[in-house]
Design a protein that fits this description.
With 574 residues, the chain is α/β, with parallel strands linked by helices. The chain is built from 18 helices and 23 strands. The protein has a 9-stranded mixed beta sheet with strand order 14-13-23-22-21-15-16-18-17, sandwiched between helices. A 5-stranded mixed beta sheet has the order 3-2-1-6-12. Helix 14 crosses helix 15 and helix 14 crosses helix 18. The longest helix is centred in the C-terminal third of the chain and has 32 residues. It starts with 6 loop residues before the first strand and ends with a helix. The mean pLDDT is 96.
Length: 574
């Protein structure tokens, strides 16, 4: 290993863990370490998910020291680092000390539980109030603000916190908290403030909006000290933050003071950065086309894990009903981005498996056969396919119809009240029934992906390929379903688990090398992104007919649910 070769560190803060990876200039990942983080739930309120920035930072520091030790690379060789994180709300005082967000007597005092996780749905009423305002802010979130965003959660806290305690709070989207923690500099990222904190592209904070919803104190004479990003203290992705690592943070991480720190990204956007510049392998041959920056606008990044995010870039603003954005300067200066999403996908697959009566049988069989449970379910499906004399698993489930929004709809309906449904149930509790429902769940997630892609393209995007990352990439069946259902190729990354942290490492290189425009940033992405693998649409014509019919039924299930809800509301009104 050449000691004077520059290296970069990506730090990815996910829903349940923090990962650090040491990355070479060509994108090769030299060493990685992942540490679990703590999430607190409320046994009396399923909507509550809380974390701790102190716990996360401790795990980050451990992981960074481990990768330096594993690689035997000196700290002097690390030239930059970048952070990505979930779009969760972190609260601290103005010295960076954590403030408790847990409801009850401790809310607002110093304490470790200072993060309201992205998946936390406590702020439903606050989101409804915000959505009744008709503010310009709503134009940039698809017309409807999600209760998963930060302002509804801040309003929820204000309603329950002593005013004197609320007045001492700083509010961060989680990526911005960790660049602040690392540098001591409060510069925010366009990604965090525009995507999750109601900062309007080209216009900034809207004081009338905050005053109308009851958060007028955040305006602070146009200083916005609680929210940051005022008077130019906001940067595009990878722009150097402050003077780099502070002395304290450098000591805790085992790195050098002053090491460049790039402005951060939300994890889904880091997944976009770590995938969409890839060339790809098709039939064992590497594509000879070197992707241009303009090509990026045709490539939809899908980060598929516990939930799923869908991100696409465009030269001009595109307003899509029910889809977040358009957001300007989120990644590249002057470019716009839209973000769709599914609130529960990987989580939904696990739920369907683990709540079925046959789950204990599946678990035991997987143990005996030394296989992953998903592989066992595919074995069962293959046996059923042969027994039923059909060509595909889709034909096994053609009379079952599944609507997957068990945790509300993020896109393109933007309705947290949507719920899941299954049509075609039988008196069957066997492992065969579980296998069918498992495949049906994958199919429903793919159908909803088509719904999002079609909404984006109808509004003015031109998406011609899907670039996947995240844990679901391991599932080859759902990857083929994405290609078949959407009718466009899917590109799988070299490593399903490393694309997001690779995107974070790119931020470190952008900061260290001072890349300032989209072309320079894109060049870094192309150089650092390993070639992916193309999965082409391959469904038989007969199966395509079934998938198209099921998509029509999928859309009908949305209309039926809304109609039924109205009937019950009318019947229940007094």
């Amino acid at each position: 290993m050449i000691r004077d070769t520059p290296y970069f560190i990506g730090i990815d803060i996910g829903t349940g863990s923090a990962r650090a990876s040491l990355v070479a200039r060509n994108g090769e990942i030299i060493a990685s370490s992942t540490k679990d983080t703590i999430t607190w739930r409320d046994q009396h309120d399923y909507r509550i998910f809380e974390q701790s920035t102190s716990n996360i930072w401790e795990q980050i520091c451990t992981a960074v020291k481990e990768i330096l030790k594993q690689s035997n690379i000196p700290a002097t060789a690390v030239k930059g680092l970048g952070f990505d994180a979930t779009c969760s709300l972190a609260v601290s005082d103005f010295d960076g000390n954590p403030i408790t967000v847990t409801k009850g007597s401790s809310i607002g005092i110093h304490g470790d539980r200072n993060v309201i996780l992205w998946a936390d749905h406590r702020a439903e009423r606050e989101a409804e109030l915000i959505n009744s305002t008709g503010s310009i802010v709503l134009n940039y979130v698809g017309g409807t603000m999600s209760l998963e965003m930060e302002v509804p959660k801040i309003l929820w806290l204000k309603k329950r916190m002593d005013p004197a305690l609320f007045a001492r709070c700083q509010f961060f989207d989680l990526p911005d908290f960790f660049t602040y923690k690392a540098t001591g500099d409060n510069t925010r990222s366009f990604c965090s403030v525009t995507c999750k904190c109601s900062y309007v592209p080209d216009k900034g904070w809207q004081s009338d909006f905050f005053e109308r919803i009851g958060l007028g104190e955040l305006v602070d004479g146009d200083n916005w000290k609680h929210m940051g990003a005022a008077r130019g203290k906001v940067q595009t992705a990878g722009s150097p933050i402050g003077r780099g690592l502070s002395k304290k943070a450098a000591e805790e991480l085992g790195l050098l003071e002053g090491t460049a720190v790039g402005s951060g990204l939300i994890d889904g956007y880091a997944g976009w950065m770590g995938t969409v510049a890839a060339r790809y392998m098709e039939n064992g041959q590497l594509s000879n086309v070197l992707p241009s920056l303009d090509e990026s606008r045709h490539r939809l990044a899908i980060v598929a894990g516990t939930s799923t995010g869908h991100i696409v870039q465009s030269r001009n603003s595109v307003f899509v009903k029910g889809v977040w954005g358009p957001y300007r300067d989120t990644a590249f200066p002057g470019w716009w981005m839209n973000e769709g999403g599914q609130s529960s996908t990987g989580q939904l697959i696990d739920f369907i498996i683990t709540t079925h009566t046959a789950y204990p049988e599946l678990k035991e069989r997987a143990k005996q056969e030394g296989k992953c449970m998903h592989v066992v379910l595919l074995d069962v499906l293959e046996k059923l396919r042969c027994e039923n004399n059909v060509d595909t698993y889709t034909e096994l489930t053609k009379d079952l119809h599944f609507y997957p929004d068990f945790h509300g709809n993020r896109s393109p309906i933007a309705d947290s009240r949507m719920r899941g449904s299954i049509v075609g149930l039988e008196l069957d509790a066997s492992i065969a029934d579980l296998a069918r429902k498992y495949y049906l769940t994958l199919e429903a997630i793919a159908l909803q992906t088509r719904h999002i892609v079609e909404a984006l393209n109808a509004a003015g995007h031109d998406i011609t390929s899907l670039y996947l990352s995240g844990g679901q990439v391991k599932n080859v069946v759902i990857m083929q379903l994405f290609a078949d259902t959407c009718g466009i190729p899917v590109i799988l990354p070299k490593s399903y688990s490393e694309a997001v942290v690779l995107g974070a490492a790119m931020l470190g290189r952008i900061a260290a090398e001072g890349a300032k425009d989209g072309e320079d940033m894109w060049k870094i992405m192309v150089e650092m992104t390993p070639a992916g693998t193309l999965v082409a649409p391959g469904a038989l014509a007969s199966v395509n007919k079934i998938l198209n019919a099921k998509y029509d039924i999928f859309l009908e299930m949305i209309d039926i649910q809304k109609r039924w809800r109205r009937k019950i509301e009318e019947a229940s009104s007094y």
